[in-house]
Design brief:
The complex is a heterodimer of chains A (266) and B (215). Chain A has 266 residues and is an alpha+beta fold. Chain A has helices at 4-92, 99-129, 137-150, 169-190, 226-240; strands at 155-161, 194-201, 205-212, 244-249, 255-262. Chain A contains 5 helices and 5 strands. The chains are: A alpha+beta (266), B mainly alpha (215). The A-B interface holds A 6, 9-10, 13, 16-17, 20-21, 24, 28, 31-32, 34-36, 38-39, 41-43, 46 and B 133, 136-137, 140-142, 145, 155, 158-159, 162-163, 166-167, 170, 173-174, 177, 179-180, 187.
Chain lengths: 266, 215
């Protein structure tokens, strides 16, 4: 009996070790299976998000094009159209019998014509400049600022810092559209005279600050209005780029908008 | 010195050298893991030298167990960025240090093998490893699991922490009863070699890929 007892204990202990080893192997296999399941779910989700991002990017491109067309249309109608109309009217009123008056009118037509050419060139430049931010984000926003200033209704302060390195074109397009949307909101609803635009490129990402001295609004009430749709578009795009969106406004106090977008691949 | 011991020390030496040569390319947790392998090499070498010189070498295990624990605490603190886990692990590490010092001074003195310290530290390793497994399930990446350095490191730590107390207990029993002690010692050696081998493989993988959640 003395010889049997320790052997039995040994067998039991060996059995315990084997059980533990089998248990360990089972646990690792189970973990493998669970991880694979979660990984597949994660990959599908990520692909969905990428698809959504691409769709949104396409929408943004279309919106930028539409906005450009609207600007061109408005400028053709209000500016070049007026100039050409005036040229036509002046031409019609020339009387050859009165050479002095005719000469003055021809001079006027020449001046109007030069103005029309300048406007057309500016429009051409606008079209060229919009080709997917050919000259970079800062140049595209500056162009937008120039158009605002040209209207004579706004005084715009624009500052850009730290744009020495190459930027990311897809992100820049989204940011450009956000800035356009913000400008559109100011033009349509703010009744502002002063606009401040700040664009800062840091190591961590990009920061855009747009503020105006307009009538402001109650952020709680107007978020569902037409202006709210514009803001929700901005918010959606900021979220898509995993950025932060901060807005401060109250009636009579103007509006302050701050957007922070992290660098991609960080 | 026996051949198996030489092979074991050579393995530790190769992994240490490899880790140190690629130190700048490793992520923070794997830099600490390299330091751990280096401390294992130093302690195991000093144990073997003590045995040759016929000096009691057990004190090395007292120190190594504590240093080990702190190195793994740093590794898991870096791998699991959860505030609650950080608090619990920090408290556990402090408590473990107090208990281990107390044990080495009053219960299992420095010329005895610190089984209580080893058992307690292994229990905490199991808890840390399980937490990391959960974290990995919560935040999967596109990288194949078999190519993830963190996975292999965690598998090694978890398996070793589960098997070690059992195998030490068994070895003690066998020595007491003078039966099959050599078999169990060999088993223990094989487990240890596999353990360090997997840790070495994890260091090799980390050189190329870094887990996405590590800052």
């Amino acid at each position: 009996m003395d010889h049997i007892k320790p052997d039995l204990n040994v067998y039991i202990t060996f059995l315990a070790i084997i059980t533990v080893l089998i248990g360990l192997a089972g646990f690792i296999i189970y973990f493998f299976a669970q991880y694979r399941k979660k990984q597949l779910f994660f990959i599908i989700n990520q692909e969905k998000q990428e698809l959504f991002f691409k769709q949104e990017l396409l929408n943004t491109r279309i919106e930028v094009q539409e906005q450009t067309m609207q600007t061109i249309g408005a400028d053709l109608h209000d500016n070049i159209g007026q100039l050409l109309g005036l040229i036509s009217l002046t031409l019609g009123s020339i009387e050859i019998t009165e050479p002095d008056k005719a000469q003055k009118k021809i001079d006027d037509i020449s001046t109007l014509n030069s103005k029309a050419i300048i406007e057309l060139r500016a429009l051409g430049k606008l079209l060229e400049g919009r080709q997917i931010l050919k000259n970079g984000l800062v140049a595209a926003i500056r162009e937008e600022v120039d158009w605002l200033e040209k209207s004579g209704k706004f005084q715009v302060m624009f500052d850009a810092f730290g744009f020495l390195q190459a930027n990311e074109q897809e992100r820049d397009l989204m940011i450009f559209r956000i800035v356009q949307e913000a400008f559109s909101n100011i033009v349509k609803h703010a009744s502002a005279s002063q606009i401040n635009v700040g664009l800062t490129h840091k190591n961590t990402g990009l920061e855009v600050i747009i503020s105006d001295n307009g009538k402001g609004f109650d952020t709680n009430q107007e978020i569902h209005s037409v202006k709210g749709i514009g803001l929700s578009n901005i918010y959606k795009r900021v979220q898509l780029m995993e950025g932060n969106f901060e807005m401060k406004s109250s009636p009579g106090q103007g509006t302050y908008l701050k957007i922070s977008i992290p660098n991609q691949h960080e | 010195m026996e051949t198996d011991i030489l092979l074991y020390l050579t393995l530790l030496f190769i992994i240490s050298v490899f880790g140190l040569c690629n130190f700048s390319r490793l992520s923070y947790p794997f830099k600490i893991l390299t330091i751990f392998i280096l401390t294992a090499l130093i302690s195991e070498t000093s144990v073997r030298i003590s045995i040759i010189m016929e000096v009691n070498s057990v004190v090395v295990y007292h120190i190594f167990c504590l240093v080990n624990f702190w190195l793994f605490t740093l590794i898991y603190l870096a791998l699991i960025p959860s505030r609650m886990f950080h608090q619990l692990l920090s408290i556990s590490a402090i408590l473990f240090t107090v208990v281990a010092i107390f044990n080495s001074n009053f219960i299992q003195l420095i010329w005895e093998i610190p089984f209580y310290n080893i058992a307690l530290s292994n229990l905490l390793y199991v808890w840390m490893a399980l937490n990391l497994f959960i974290r990995m399930l919560d935040f999967p990446t596109r990288t194949r699991l078999g190519s993830q350095s963190v996975f292999w490191m965690n598998v090694a730590v978890f398996s070793y922490a589960v098997v070690t107390p059992l195998s030490i207990g068994l070895m003690l029993y066998m020595i007491t009863n003078e039966r099959y002690a050599e078999i169990i010692m060999n088993f223990n050696e094989i487990v240890t070699v596999i353990y360090y081998g997997i840790l070495g493989y994890a260091i090799y993988l980390d050189r190329q890929t870094k887990p996405t959640w590590i800052i």
